[in-house]
Amino acid sequence: MIVVKLYGGLGNQMFQYAVGRQLSLIHNTILKYDDGFFQYNNDTTITRREFELNVFNTKITKASNQELNQFLNKSRVRKRLEHYFPFLETHHLIHEKFHPFDPNVLLAKNNTYLSGYWQSEKYFTGCRAELLQEFILKQPPGRNCKALEERCRKNNAVAIHIRRGDYVSRKANTEYHGVCSLEYYYKAIQLIGSKMQTPPELIVFSDDMPWVKEYFKPGMEFYCAEENTGLQSVYDLYFMSLCRHNVVANSSFSWWGAWLNTHRDKIVVAPKQWYATDTIDSSQIAPEAWIRI
Predict the structure, then answer these.
(1) What is the reported pLDDT for 76?
(2) How does residue 38 score in pLDDT terms, banded at 50, 70 and 90?
(3) Distances in whole angstroms, Cα of residue 40 to Cα of each of 34, 35, 43, 56, 132
(4) Which of 284, 285, 236, 240 is nearest to 266 (CA)?
(5) Which of 2.102.10.10, 3.40.50.11350, 3.40.920.10, 3.60.15.10 would CATH assign to domain 143-292?
(6) Helix axes 252-259, 234-242, angle to 10 degrees
(7) What is residue 178's predicted lDDT score, i.e. its pLDDT?
(8) C-alpha distances in angstroms, 262 versus 56, 59, 204, 258, 266?
(9) Are 34 and 144 in contact (CB under 8 A)?
(10) What digits encode the pLDDT tens for the residues 56-114?
């Protein structure tokens, strides 16, 4: 059994699922999740989240309290015994050391509990085929999205994700994450356009479309994807993945939109400055094939 602790929004939960799925395949065992963070989190400084992986065809079930206790509530005597006699340890606990990628995680034994964000594809490149099948939405988009889907399937479609939301509404998030500048988006669009044979058709996805309409001026026409809002916003992930190329924000949501894009000739541009602070090593968040500016 592999257990992953889930927290954060959908994109973060997808990273946590992915590393757990990789280890579950290595050990040919079941994957379970701990959703205690969503149930007991009372921190008002962070955005309230819920379990969201059930929108996909994921192969994961909830761990029981009894199963979690084997990892998280060992007695002092048991901890001391395992410290001096490691061979007695049957249930293992791994806390992420935070960026960058730690290859030792993939050497984890069976019956391991994982706590972290795991934001690097290097944790799960071995199961890309499985993830592409399991990150398929259970429910298809509504009929109102037919025109958007046709637009995204065009050969010159470029998905632009502009993440604002709680990145700007909460001071702590602004100081930690920051937001991508307009200059970043304009440079990314110019770079992708220079590599295309036909002018790009820009499709903008955002959690703050009024801001986009007022301030986003790329020098060419663009389409605002406003078909999905609220609980339906998950469909934006699907539509971003359909586009030929992607410009991602410093957001795990658009990261997955680009990663799930299966076009072999895709161009993905990601921000070099992933966090507002320089104290975090984010050098391995973006896959090596992506262009960072």
Answers:
(1) 74
(2) confident
(3) 12, 9, 9, 24, 31
(4) 240
(5) 3.40.50.11350
(6) 40
(7) 83
(8) 17, 21, 19, 9, 8
(9) no
(10) 999 999 999 999 998 888 777 667 766 666 765 778 999 998 778 999 999 999 999 99
Return the closest-CA partner of residue 18 out of 161, 140, 114.
Answer: 114
- Cβ partners under 8 Å of residue 5, min gap 6: 16, 33, 34, 36, 37, 113, 114, 115, 116
Nearest to 6 by CA among 166, 116, 105: 116
Predicted TM-score of the model (pTM) = 0.91
pLDDT at 40 over 80: no
The ranges assigned to domains in the chain are 2-134, 143-292
Of 273, 275, 268, 272, whose CA–CA distance to 254 is shortest?
268
